[in-house]
Design brief:
- Strands 11-2-1-15-18 form a five-stranded parallel β-sheet, covered by helices on one side.
- It is globular, with a radius of gyration of 22 Å.
- The protein has two domains: 230 residues, FAD/NAD(P)-binding domain (3-Layer(bba) Sandwich), CATH 3.50.50.60; 123 residues, no CATH class.
- The longest helix is centred in the N-terminal third of the chain and has 21 residues.
- By secondary structure, it is α/β, with parallel strands linked by helices.
- Bound molecules: flavin-adenine dinucleotide (FAD).
C-alpha cells in the first residue's frame, strides 16, 4: 500500500488526505496549528468562470493541463466528497461550485460564495430582498452593532431589516463577539420573514441564519475542528532525501517515512511562505514565483507593487507542473515524490473567487497523484 504524508491541516491538506485515502493509500496528516482555513468568513468561494481562468497561463488550475470539462468533472467529485465528509463530522453545507449566492457579513456587506454552512444558506441576500428581517444585537457585545448592520442591509440590499437588541446578562464585562460562541440563540420578540444572528450561536430557530464573520471566525473554527480530527499535531522541521526523492520528514521527536509527500502548508498565515525582503519557501527552499517569473529575479519590484495594490504580492507562491510537482527556477522537478497544493501555490488571487477552490481542487488532485506513487 502506498504511504502518503500530508503536511498541513487546512482545507488543502484535508482534501489531499480524502483523495489519497479514497485511492487506497495509507495517509498521515501532520499539522502544527490552524492556518487561514480557521479564519475564513463562512462562505467558500470555489470558482467563477472556468473558461476565463484557463486564459491565465500561471493560474494553478490552468497549469494542471486539464480542459474545462475535465476540471468540471474533478470539481464535481472533489466538492461532493468534501461536503459528504464534513457532513459525517457533523457540519452541513449547502450549495455547489456551479452556483453563486451573496451573503451578508456582520457589517451588512455582501460577499459572494458558492458553498456555505447550512446555517448561513437561509440568509442568501437575493432571497431576502424586500422581506422583513430582524437583526439580533446583543448590547453587552462591543465589537458588533446590529443597528448599523440592519441599516446596511436596508440601504445596500433593499431588505426591510430592523435591529432587535436581546440582552445576555451572564456575558463578561466588555464582551466581544467571540463570547457568543457556543451559546444558545436567543429568541427575538418581533418576528419577520427571517432572523439574522451574529455568527457563533447554536440551536438557531428555523427562520434564523448566521451572518458571515470577520476574524476570528466561528465558521472557520467549526470547520477547522471538523477537519482537524485525526491529524497528528507536530511541526515538520527537516527532510531526508535520496536520489531526487524525499524519504522522510522529521518533526522534533519523530520521523515520518512515506512514499509520497503533499506539501499543503498554506501561505503566510499557515507558514508555507515566509515574507521578508524576498518571499521564500522555508521548509525545502523551493523556488517561489510571481506571474511565472522567479520572485528572486524581481528585486524590490514586488515590494513596490505591494504598496500600490496589496493583492499583487498575494499572487506569489510555488509553481507546479501538470502533476502538481513544485518546479525549480529552471523548470525542473527537484523531488519526484513531492506534490504541492493549496495557498502555498502562486498565480491566483488568494482572496478572490478561487479562495477555497484552488485549495480544494489542487488538494484533491495532489492526494490522488500522491496515492499513485
Ligand atoms: C482572514 C481570511 C479570511 C478568508 N475568508 C475566505 C472566505 O470567506 N472564502 C474563501 O473562499 N476564502 C477565504 N480565505 C482564503 C482561504 O481561507 C485560504 O485560501 C485557504 O483556507 C487556504 O487553505 P490551505 O489549506 O492552503 O492553508 P491553511 O489553512 O493556511 O493551512 C496550512 C496548514 O499548514 C500547516 N503547516 C505549515 N507549515 C507546517 C510545518 N512545517 N509542519 C506542519 N504543519 C505546517 C499549518 O499549521 C496549517 O495547518 C480567507 C483567508 C483569510 C486569511
Amino acid at each position: 500500500m502506498t504511504t502518503v504524508l500530508v503536511i498541513g491541516g487546512g482545507i488543502a491538506g484535508y482534501c489531499a488526505a480524502l483523495a489519497a485515502r479514497r485511492d487506497g493509500a495509507e495517509v498521515t496528516v501532520v499539522a502544527r496549528a490552524p492556518g487561514a482555513t480557521a479564519l475564513y468568513a463562512g462562505g467558500m468561494e470555489i470558482i467563477d468562470e472556468i473558461e476565463s481562468i484557463l486564459q491565465r497561463p500561471n493560474h494553478p488550475l490552468t497549469r494542471l493541463g486539464i480542459d474545462a470539462v475535465g476540471l468540471a468533472t474533478e470539481l464535481d467529485t472533489a466538492v461532493s466528497t468534501l461536503l459528504l465528509a464534513l457532513r459525517k463530522e457533523g457540519l452541513k453545507f449547502e450549495g455547489g461550485w456551479r452556483n453563486r449566492g451573496l451573503y451578508a457579513d456582520i457589517h451588512g456587506l455582501a460577499r459572494p460564495a458558492n458553498v456555505v454552512p447550512e446555517t448561513v444558506a437561509r440568509g442568501e441576500l437575493g432571497a431576502l430582498s424586500g422581506k422583513r428581517v430582524a437583526v439580533i444585537g446583543v448590547p453587552e457585545v462591543g465589537d458588533y452593532d446590529a443597528r448599523s448592520t440592519a441599516l446596511a442591509l436596508k440601504e445596500l440590499h433593499g431588505i426591510d431589516a430592523f435591529a432587535e437588541e436581546v440582552s445576555i446578562a451572564e456575558l463578561p464585562t466588555a464582551a466581544a463577539l467571540t463570547d457568543l460562541y457556543g451559546r444558545r440563540a436567543p429568541a427575538p420578540r418581533a418576528r419577520g420573514a427571517a432572523i439574522a444572528y451574529p455568527p457563533g450561536f447554536t440551536n438557531l430557530p428555523d427562520d434564523g441564519f448566521e451572518l458571515l464573520a470577520s476574524p476570528p471566525s466561528p465558521h472557520g473554527w467549526r470547520l477547522q475542528q471538523a477537519i482537524g480530527l485525526g491529524a497528528v499535531h507536530g511541526e515538520i522541521i527537516s527532510f531526508e532525501t535520496a536520489r531526487g526523492r524525499i524519504t522522510a520528514a522529521r518533526s522534533a521527536d519523530r520521523a515520518f517515512h512515506a512514499d509520497a509527500i503533499v506539501l499543503a502548508t498554506g501561505r503566510h498565515i499557515g507558514g508555507g511562505l515566509h515574507a521578508a525582503r524576498s518571499t521564500t519557501e522555508p521548509l525545502l527552499g523551493l523556488s517561489v514565483f510571481y506571474e511565472g517569473r522567479p520572485a528572486e529575479s524581481l528585486g524590490s519590484r514586488l515590494h513596490h507593487l505591494k504598496y500600490i495594490d496589496a493583492s499583487e504580492e498575494m499572487r506569489i507562491g510555488l509553481m507546479t507542473d501538470r502533476r502538481l510537482h513544485p518546479l525549480d527556477e529552471d523548470g525542473s522537478v527537484p523531488y519526484a515524490n513531492l506534490y504541492a497544493a493549496g495557498a502555498v501555490l502562486g498565480g491566483y488571487d488568494y482572496a478572490g473567487p478561487c479562495g477555497f477552490g484552488v485549495p480544494i481542487l489542487t488538494g484533491w488532485l495532489a492526494g490522488r497523484y500522491a496515492a499513485k506513487q
